[in-house]
Write a structure and sequence with these properties.
binds inosinic acid, 3-stranded antiparallel sheet, 6-stranded mixed sheet, binds magnesium ion, about 180 residues, about 30% strand, globular, alpha/beta
Length: about 180
């Protein structure tokens, strides 16, 4: 799988070191608060597993599944919720976790939907944020790393459902993306 990368952006040790810092910040910010973490499947599962084990708070965990990509490297703009019921978050402080903030469509749509369920607060935490002008503005409260506007895989992030189990994060070779588009 590593051969399919143009270059590695973050090795596993670098990611885990950054997660220590993020977890410390989140643990301090949510001390004495009723925290519910909502993770967006499938991309955030590895990030979620490593981050949450570093947060020693009595939190609740729920997952949401949405689709917006349909196998391409560009967002379709349409966000489809795969489950009917939303988690019970009335009066809870919600921390929304996702792998990456790209166009902003996904997190903006989820955030809008969760607002309707009367949480006490909603904050957004992403491992990666692409430096670009977003179609929908989403303010990420916790960001692991800012990256250029390139297609990346690994550590939960996929290209056509592959590479999620790669322990590092890297830029996918352009020829591989081109092949599957054409
Ligand atoms: P957005 O709605 O455009 O912000 O896209 C968010 C979703 O698109 C993420 O949760 C990812 O699943 C996927 N995504 C966006 N950029 C990348 C990337 O560079 N690599 C892999 N998946 C990505
Ligand atoms: Mg994806």
């Amino acid at each position: 799988m590593q051969d399919d990368l143009e270059r590695i952006l973050f090795h596993e040790t670098t990611i885990l070191r950054r997660l220590d810092e993020m977890a410390a910040q989140i643990s301090s910010d949510y001390r004495k608060r009723e925290l519910t973490v909502i993770a967006v499947l499938n991309g955030s599962i590895i990030f979620m597993a490593d981050l949450l084990r570093r947060i020693p708070l009595p939190l609740k965990l729920d997952c949401l599944s949405v689709a917006s990509y349909h196998g391409k490297t560009q967002t379709s703009g349409e966000v489809v919720f795969k489950q009917v019921a939303l988690p019970d978050i009335v009066d809870r402080h919600v921390l929304l976790l996702d792998d990456i903030l790209d166009s902003g469509h996904t997190l903006a749509a989820i955030r809008d939907k969760l607002e309707t369920a009367n949480p006490r607060s909603i904050r957004v935490c992403v491992l990666l944020s692409k430096k670009k002008t977003r179609s929908r503005s989403v303010n990420a409260d916790y960001v692991g790393f800012e990256i250029a506007d390139e297609f990346v895989v690994g550590y939960g992030l996929d290209f056509m459902e592959r590479y999620r189990n790669l322990p590092c994060i890297g830029v996918l070779r352009k020829d591989l993306i081109a092949q599957s588009n054409g």
